[in-house]
Write a structure and sequence with these properties.
The protein is an alpha/beta fold. The chain has one domain: 3-Layer(aba) Sandwich (Rossmann fold), CATH 3.40.50. Helices cover about 25% and strands about 30% of the residues. The longest helix has 13 residues. The chain is globular.
Length: about 210
């Protein structure tokens, strides 16, 4: 089977991950077997990271040895695929109690997922739960998306990140391309920006920024 990246496989032109809990589906995704191994199709219409992969992401920071901090985990759609890839823990920060209630049953089955009810803008709220993270994945619809990532990168010493920028969450009337340019320029002052991937047609007015710490 062709791979996009280690741990991320291609199935009919779309990404897939080995199901770490065979028989478990999280959001109604298709599963299939090859060579006696069960895989989960990773829907790019439901996951910005999957959309980025389909749209040509060249580097993927998560490996089987990555401890991951996922900011804005919601009900676990993307985080569950990340938990398939890494053998280590995925700390899933979610602000909404309603979303967390749906995340908890997933984490009870995928035991390397750790659900955390907290505000990603306040990393001190969950600083006691993890000493460090190798990779941060952020999908938080807040105006200060770049500031949130910066605070968490500094707090947990992360070396790499995938940041989803939603233009309409920053300013609902300005040209999204101008917003992206400004946000990426700000990021370049603090990080090494490796690539910026437009997520259309899977997500409108979104880009996925792949970056590393300087």
């Amino acid at each position: 089977m062709r791979t996009y990246f280690p741990g991320v496989f291609e199935f009919h032109g779309r990404p897939a991950t080995k199901n770490s809990v065979p028989g478990l589906t999280v959001y109604g995704e298709r599963t299939f077997k090859q060579g006696g191994v069960e895989y989960r199709a990773w829907d790019p219409f439901r996951s910005k990271v999957a959309a980025g992969i389909v749209q040509g992401l060249r580097r993927f920071p998560v490996t089987q040895d990555s401890t991951v901090l996922y900011l804005g985990a919601s009900t676990g759609t993307t985080a569950s695929h990340i938990a398939d890839i890494t053998r280590r823990l995925v700390y899933c920060v979610e602000f909404s109690p309603r979303m967390l209630r749906e995340l908890v049953p997933v984490a009870e089955r995928k035991t390397n997922m750790v659900p955390i009810l907290a505000d990603a803008r306040q990393p001190q709220e969950y600083r006691h739960l993890l000493s460090k993270a190798d990779v941060i994945i952020q999908d938080v619809a807040q105006p200060n998306q770049t500031e949130i990532l910066t605070k968490n990168m500094e707090t947990f010493g992360a070396k790499a990140a995938l940041l989803s920028i939603k233009a309409r969450s920053i300013n609902s009337v300005r040209d999204p391309q101008k917003i992206f340019k400004e946000e990426v320029n700000t990021l370049r002052g603090k990080f090494n920006v490796l690539e910026v991937v437009d997520l259309r047609p899977f997500e409108e007015d979104h880009v996925l920024v792949n970056l590393t710490a300087k």
